[in-house]
Structure formats: C-alpha cells, structure tokens
Amino acid sequence: xxxxxxxxxxxxxxxxxxxxxxxxxxxxxxxxxxxxxxxxxxxxxxxxxxxxxxxxxxxxxxxxxxxxxxxxxxxxxxxxxxxxxxxxxxxxxxxxxxxxxxxxxxxxxxxxxxxxxxxxxxxxxxxxxxxxxxxxxxxxxxxxxxxxxxxxxxxxxxxxxxxxxxxxxxxxxxxxxxxxxxxxxxxxxxxxxxxxxxxxxxxxxxxxxxxxxxxxxxxxxxxxxxxxxxxxxxxxxxxxxxx
Length: 243
Hints:
Blueprint (H helix, E strand, L loop, with lengths): L1 H9 L4 H13 L4 H8 L3 H13 L3 E6 L2 E6 L3 H27 L5 E6 H13 L4 E6 L1 H5 L4 H14 L2 E6 L3 H8 L7 E5 L9 E5 L2 E6 L4 E6 L1 H17 L2
Parallel strand pairs: 4-5, 5-6
Antiparallel strand pairs: 1-2, 3-9, 4-7, 7-8, 8-9
Helix pairs in contact: 1-2, 2-3, 2-4, 6-8
C-alpha cells in the first residue's frame, strides 16, 4: 500500500490526496465516513482532499436518496493527465532550450574529487564527436592512470567519431607518449616548449572545459560556450608553437 501511495505522489498528487483516492478506489463507492475510516484521515479535514480530487476529475459523487456517495474514476485517468502534461511541456520545450542556450552568463560547474571522480571527468570529456583539445603532463597522468584507463578514453573518442589534439609536457614520458602509434588515427600529438611545466591537465571540447589536478585528484568541468571558445583560442595559439 505504501508503495502505491508513493507512486501516486510521484504522479503529482499530494500525500493526503493519494490516500483518499486509493481508499475510495478500494471501497468502490462510499460515504465520507467510509472514506475517512479507510484512509485514516479525520472526517473534519477529508472534505478538502475530496474536493481537490473531484476538481482533478479523479473522484465523482452521486446521490442516492439523502446520502452522498463518492466513486473513484478509473486509474487510466491519471495516466491520461500525465500524458497531457507531457504533450503540453513538449510544446514549450524548444523555447525553454533556446532560453537555456542563451543563458551563457550562467555556466554549469561540476566539481569532482578522488581517482574515480577524475575517471568520470575523462569519460565525459572523451565521449565526444568533436575535436578534443588536451594539454597535460604524461608523468603526472601515468602516476594515477594505467594503460587500461587510456584505452577506455581513446575508445570513447574513436567510437564517437571525435578527433584528438594533444599537447604534452616535454619530458621523457611525454616524448614516449608522442611517439606511440596507438592513438595516431585519432589525431595529432605535439610536445610543448620546455618552459611549459604543468600542474593541471586541461581538456576542451564543445562547450566544456575540464581542469584536473593529478597531484590533488580534484577537478572541475565548466560548461559555457564563451569560456570554452576562449580556451580553444589559447590552445590553437600554443599549438602553433609546439613541436
């Protein structure tokens, strides 16, 4: 019974309304006293919930002699109301999305921590059909992630039809990464100038920018077109001066 009440609440009914509807449905046809007794709601307060349900077309009343009886409407009525709400919402959804896309001054920022949080960031950023710009330290990356992690991230890009533009810190591990052939079909890798010493990895794709500290295992994803475009321009400038 509690599960039915919970699911009725999830359709938009208040808890007391759900109790009254379910009690009436069980009775079939009942008086105020019958419904109050079955639902456990005091008779003095149950009238408002019955009135609400009548307005929602989920209860109806009938008079027999001098007595008033209430009947529950078929449960399909609830489904029909949900479907009607869904259709009405679908009509305004394009306009709402347009407003959302124009609200670029309100970036969506998500914070992650721990090794699993860092994996979530890489998984989300590599699941792209666009160009993924990446600047990172191979030494710090490999201190936390293994070859299997890398294969998962590369496969994400491959399966989505994305492209990779990697810039890696100039270290022995970075040079070995740049020479490796397993990611060449995804794009290009360049080695950064010697003066670039990285404490944070940065990835940019679409409208998203991710910043990851491999030292502290904390990171953020910022979703904002202006911020993403700015970071892409920085990447393109550095790309020209990388090997």
